[in-house]
Amino acid sequence: MPRFLFVLLACLLLPATALADWTARLSSCAPEYFLAADKSRKLLFQVEHRKSAPEITRTFDCIHGRREGDKQKEGDLRTPEGVYFITHKIERKLDFMEYGPHAFNLNYPNPADRLRGKTGGGIWLHSKGQPIEGLTTRGCMAIDMYEIEDLVPLLIPGTPVIVAEHLEGAPFESAQKSGDAPAPLPAPLPQGETAVFHSPEHAAELCPPPGQNAGQSACPPLAGSSASPAPEAALLSSEESVRCRTLLWMDRRLRQTDDIVELYDRKNYPRAGREKFSSLKKRLRSEFSRQKDLFLDKEGIRLMEGPGYWVSCFIKSYEHKGVLHHGLQALYWLPDEKGEFFIIGEVWISN
Q: What is the CATH number for 112?
């Protein structure tokens, strides 16, 4: 085999360690509220759905790690790129000049990061106790401490944060930091509500109905099913396929069927999710019996594309020992060599 073919084959078989200069675009089923960082322009956007379309409601100057590129290992001073969620507010006392009055933790490394061998942690969205102009961070993202004060009521656990080298497409084409008066901030959420999943005025315009894609064709069954796939199944986009697979996961979770494990990547899930496949089966069976009155918001599935993977997220609630648990469930999906998507990791963030 010629040397260049061998090298090409090796690159295709190994998980990518980095996708240089990742450019992010929004899914048509993006969350109702999220943050998006453009590292090349050093800007952080607050994005909301208004009149069934995403709009930038505020723009912040945002600094990132002192070294360019996607984070690969602990201590490399780079800011990671991908789809993340705020997990909690940092409550311990911090160096005020370095972190300012507020800091929020992101779920780095996420399952796709771990699969690619990325290491490190402690990636935050925070402020500084000094003007950020001309400064850098150790890998976090930082905005002005007076501006982060406005965001604090909205940065609840489960808030998505997309971090990319470039953001393109609507609504990012001409967005830039300016001296114009910002759009009014939404009112703080009542305790227990989740900003990610505000009900839009016209939900059907944001996402196809459950079981259908944008072309009104039914979601195809899982590979290996006895049912015949819809003729249009081959035309499903990655976005539509991930949504269909998420609906399948929900259906099997609600019916408490063991075949839910067919939706998980047997090879990559243990590496990305830090859980053996045998332990996954036991955990799911345990959840079948422990989680009562389970609710999965099928109408509220939201999708985000990461560098080489997709994330679906939705509200999940259940009762356990008389206590109601409510929060965000996120599934990280990776396509196999045939283009079929399988789960490589899960994230549950209670709020």
A: 2.40.440.10
